[in-house]
Specification:
Subcellular location: Cytoplasm
Protein name: tRNA-binding domain-containing protein
Largest sheet: 5 strands, antiparallel
CATH topology of the largest domain: OB fold (Dihydrolipoamide Acetyltransferase, E2P)
Keywords: Coiled coil, Cytoplasm, Protein biosynthesis, RNA-binding, tRNA-binding
GO molecular function, one term: tRNA binding
Pfam families: tRNA_bind
Order of helices and strands: HHEEHHEEEHEEEEEEEHEEEE
CATH class of the largest domain: Mainly Beta
Helix content: 25-40%
Shape: rod-shaped
């Protein structure tokens, strides 16, 4: 490094001499040819010294492991050596390859899960869009009326006016229903009887026993009769009414709603059950439901 500094110092001194020579051009006469030759010679000498210094500097840097980034001869940045880069590029080990494969597999699985989730969300959205609007009509379509068969009956232990019936409605097990029929019928009038039951009335406790429906009857102040379906009816058969969609009733209704619908239910002059004058039917639409003797009376 001291040699480089010394040579650089000499180069500076020579440059100062040339500057002095140039500054004296205007004060004395020089032969242009001579002056040109002097400059040419000096220029070659300076280039040689500069190149010598560059070579020395490059050699020192190479000894210290410094990579040369510039081609001083052509005055352009040096292109990286491909062979060296390839040599320095680490080859994938089997473990790394396995890790890469695992990552790719996990990524693929994650992508499949994402697609499945999106598909599921789309189905939910489609189902919501296809879901029909809630029924708000105040009519028989809100009632779940079905044929039932009373398989057992007994008096309520804590209510003198109530019977407790077990009614087969085509479900896994019979439902418990409490009916205020003690003053109007004997237990023999109920046992094994086919009746019509309002099945989706909200269950309510009646003197400690939960009642899960209501037996439909033609009623007056003095007399009550069952509404009887055709003898070939089966437990679970749904009651229909022409002009009303009775196949999709509410899952459950409150007594307040039933109290609004019941006033439009009555027997006609033949004792047949109707809603606003339209017959209740079972099955093929021709089998009507009748009271034995009560015509033109409310159903409740």
């Amino acid at each position: 490094m001291e040699s480089i500094q010394e040579k650089a110092k000499k180069a500076d001194e020579r440059i100062q001499q040339l500057k002095s020579l140039i500054s004296n051009i205007g004060t004395r006469q020089l032969d242009p040819e001579v002056y040109y030759n002097v400059l040419q010679e000096e220029n070659k000498r300076l280039k040689s010294r500069v190149q010598s210094l560059v070579n020395e500097l490059t050699s020192l840097e190479n000894q210290r492991g410094v990579t040369q980034q510039y081609d001083f001869v052509n005055k352009v940045p040096k292109a990286p050596a491909e062979s060296k880069q390839q040599a320095e590029t680490p080859q994938a080990t089997p473990a790394a390859a396995a890790a890469t494969t695992t990552t790719t597999t996990e990524s693929s699985a994650s992508g499949e899960q994402s697609k499945a989730k999106d598909k599921k969300e789309k189905k939910k959205t489609a189902a919501k869009e296809e879901k029909p609007a809630a029924n708000t009509a105040i009519d028989i379509s809100r009632f779940d009326l079905r044929v039932g068969k009373i398989v057992s009956v007994q008096k309520h232990p804590d209510a003198d006016s109530l019977y407790v019936e077990q009614i087969d409605l085509g479900e896994e097990k019979p439902r418990t229903v409490c009916s205020g029929l003690v003053k109007h019928m004997q237990t023999t009038d109920l046992d094994q009887k086919l009746v019509i039951v309002l099945c989706n009335l909200k269950p309510a406790k009646m003197r400690g026993i939960m009642s899960e429906g209501m037996v439909m009857c033609a009623s007056t102040a003095d007399k009550v009769e069952f509404l009887e379906p055709p003898s070939d009816s089966k437990p679970g058969d749904r009651i229909e009414c022409e002009g009303y969609d009775c196949k999709s009733p509410d899952a459950q209704i409150k007594k307040e709603l039933s109290d609004q619908i019941l006033p439009d239910m009555s027997t006609n002059d033949k004792g047949e059950a109707t809603f606003k004058g339209i017959l209740w039917t079972v099955g093929n639409g021709k089998n009507v439901i009748k009271s034995k003797s009560l015509a033109n009376v409310p159903i409740k």
